[in-house]
Design a protein that fits this description.
single chain, alpha+beta, ten-stranded mixed beta sheet, 21 strands, about 15% helix, about 30% strand, signal
Amino acid sequence: MRNPITFVLLGGVAGAASITVSAFGQQGQTVTPPKARYAMDVGTSSGFGAGGRAPSLGSILGGGGGGGSVVHELRLRLGSTLPPAGGAAKADHFFQPAAGLGPSVPLHWERQGTAPGEAEYQRPKGKLLIYWGCGERAGPGQPVVIDFARIAAGQVPPGLFSTNVPVDRGPMPTNSKTYGEWPNVTSSKQVTAQSSLIGEHRIAGTYSPEIKFALTQDYMPGLSARSVIAPSGAVNLSWNGIANATGYYAWAFGAKGMGERAPEEMVWWTSSAAKEFGGGLWDWLPPETVRRLIVSKVVMPPSQTSCIVPAEVRQAAPEFMMGNLFAYGPEANFVYPPRPANPRTPWNQEWTARVRYRSNTSFLVGGPDLSGLGGDEAASADSGSSAEPPKKKCKKRGLGGLGGLGGLGGAIGGALGGNKCE
């Protein structure tokens, strides 16, 4: 098989690649979409609850790191327009030994029912105060106050959402005739601390052409976030810069009265200088999207390694605030066969593959570093063990606590009622 054409998207290279494709399209070249699309989401996480291991309360209050390690995350998804040949749908991703996953992992999918107790739902009560931007004081027009009772009645504040941050998750069961993913209910393998993705990768199965490509980019290093309360009441948030990061984005969530009852007033803050809460900010973002969001000041540039959380944010939730910092990374794209040089020759694509990278860490606003990293270790960390394979189920869409928090969009959706199945 001929080698696939490869695009590695890092800054300006991404724009050049997309312009080249557009230029050929303008010349009238016929392009047939691929029979199969493959996606690899490669993540690194640290801090509170990384890998499903929450730090003890004593370690947090005592100033200990708590997080303990950097954890690798790997999500694989194969979507095809073809039905399975010869019976059941079956596909595998074959790795190099350095991946630490054995010869291969199965790409499998089956619809999951609602888990016991998951169908129960309670509408969130009270109000949500929304702040945004880095600075000692909150900007004009803040906070935006969302009354969940009014949201449930259909009174959504105008201008709260936009489409500036598209959500592009690639192949899914809903846009594929045949679909498989990993982790799944049939495979309990875990990414090891020594895992590496460098080298050749092969995907073969009954519903897709054989896919082959090679990776030169490994898991991103771990992030280490520190937050210090200033005399003004603002919080100075800082982190170690990552060499291959394309941009950074932070958020924090807290509430008054974090007791047994659901709090009546919750607080949301984002580092975006614009009133932008797009759901895609929680995902793996391509470099060209990150670059555009940096221009609009929604995402912080890769040169920035600090942000001040306004004093009003912590004053609104003085007891507890949990935050997360994302470092978006590079992207590699592959397509086979390569585009014909002659624009009059149709380009009949067999398959495409996309690999996106991300690193994130959790932090307590005004609390200790929870990453378990420090100094040079934070700048170069690139190891850890993964979480248990996620089980797909219907989740409560509310804000009764930190668990299940899935972005501001999910919060508003929870106020409207119903469950979210992922």
